[in-house]
Each structure stands twice: as C-alpha cells, then as structure tokens.
Amino acid sequence: MKAPHYIGRFAPSPSGELHFGSLIAALGSYLQARANQGRWLVRIEDIDPPREVPGAAETILRQLDHYGLHWDGEVLWQSERHEAYREALNWLRQQDLSYYCTCTRSRIQQIGGFYDGHCRTLNHGPENAAMRLAQQHPVLSFEDRLRGKLVADEQLAREDFIIHRRDGLFAYNLAVVVDDNYQGVTEIVRGADLIEPTVRQISLYRQFGWRVPQYVHLPLALNDRGNKLSKQNHAPALPQGDPRPVLVAALTFLNQPVIAHWQDFTLEGLLSEAVENWALADIPLNAAMNTAFSNAPH
User: Fold this and answer.
1) Is 11 labelled a binding residue?
2) Where is the short sequence motif 'HIGH' region located (predicted)?
C-alpha cells in the first residue's frame, strides 16, 4: 500500500503575536514538510474567544509571510468548523462513548487532580455540564520520531477527559483531532509543551477509527528564568525587520547547519538551503518535559 503524501501543519491560537518560540514550531514543521516534498498547512485555532486577542490571527499570518513561511491552500479557521465538531460529539453520544459530567474543578483537585469517572453512570443531562469521553482506548505510550518511546502517567492515559466544555466551547483535544483528520495531516511537528495531550488525541483517533499521524515534539525555547517563551510569559513579538538573522538563530537553536555567508542569500534562498540541509535527527532534546511523561528506557 502506497504511503500517503506528506501533509504537515502549523496551528497557532490567536492569543497574541508569534514570538521566537512560536517561530521554532512554525519553522520546524515547515522544513519537515518541505524536506519530505509535502504540503504545509496553516490553521488558526480560534475556538476559545475569551483567550483571543483582536487582530492577532491576521498579524500571525502576516508574520509567517514576512518570514517566508508560505503555506499551501486556504487557511482553515476553527471558528468556521463548529458543525464538524458537533457532528463528532453527536457520533460519540450515539455510540455511548461520552457522557455529561457536573464535577467541579475543585472536586477533581481534592481527589488528586485526575478525574475518577464519578459521573459515568449517573446519566446527567447537558444542563450546566461538561461532556467527557468514556475512555475505551487508553494510550499508555507513543512513539515520537525525535524522542523515541514516551511513556505517559497511567492516570492521565486512562482519564475520561473533557471534549465539550461546561461553558459551551469545544475542547482543544476534540477540535484538533477532528481538524487534523479532516485536513489529512500525516505528521504533527510541534513544541514539547504539547507532549502530554498527545495520548488523549491518539485515543480519540482510535475512538473514531481514524488513522493516527506521526508526531515530532521540538525543544522549547526558554527565557533567562528557565521558563518557556510564551504569550503568557510576555515573550516579545518577532522583529519586523530583516527576518534572516532571526531565522538563522532559529536554525542554530534546532542544531541545523547554517550556510556560510548567509547574509548574501535572499530570504527564499536561505530557506531553500535550510530545506536541503534539514536533519531531523540532529535536533537537540533539551525541551522542558512535562512531569507526567518520561522517556522510556532503551
């Protein structure tokens, strides 16, 4: 059977402008897709309005364009995908693979932080309730193409997690799986801060009977206090001037070769050389690993 054509993606949330940490994820996914003669898609994950900054989505797209990271096809906006998410939720309900839960966050914290399935057999209605997946396919480990086998905390893997929030918003894990499957994504290259939800997402793929993509989790850029660069930590936005020095810094961070006299290359030429020289295996692993995960012994 012929392997599917490579499709990668970058899927930022519009909660602020892209920063150097975002560029690492965007550049890594872009280079991996181009090095595999594949397509590179961009999706705006705008399903959490309280966290979104007006105008941020348009700014993100301008930043990607400024840095030469040109995507294929149309941008997919999650805010236009509600019907697809409702269909997925309805299918899970019809298969008896989900249920309504009225447990509060404080109750879950009091029992140790992982949900215990308390509402699974109580037949609650949707009023003032979240919807949880009735976990049938716990994923205790998965293979990361950069990090090897990653082993999850068993309580995390077996938890009935939320797929539709009490406030009426669609949960991230549900939306990302529905959209990656819809777009035919074959490999997900993203930051190591998203290692933990991967086991939940793989379990959803299996619940729906969909093909599971491959995963690569890149190292995280940290600030001088050892915290990951993030919008929450007020990481500065990407510079608006010459993008080439910033791209060279990102390539260096990813331990990729930088061509001599890169200053003489155009932006397109610099990225073309980066694609040509891309070596996934050379990327360092010095990411901030989530405490719920460990590298399995080899």
Assistant:
1) yes
2) 12-22
Answer yes or no: 2 catalytic: no
Mean pLDDT estimate for the chain: 91
Q: Residue 233 pLDDT more than 60?
A: no
Instruction: State what percent of residues in the chain have pLDDT above 70.
Output: 90
Q: Is 249 annotated as a binding residue?
A: no
Q: State yes or no: 115 annotated in a binding site.
A: yes
**Catalytic-role residue among 2, 149, 228, 231:** 231
pLDDT band at 1 (very low <50, low <70, confident <90, very high): very low
Does 141 belong to an annotated binding site? Answer: no
pLDDT for 169: 96
CB-CB contact of 41 with 69 (8 Å): no
Model pLDDT for residues 79-134, shown as the tens digit of each residue: 999 999 999 999 999 999 999 999 999 999 999 889 999 999 999 999 999 999 99
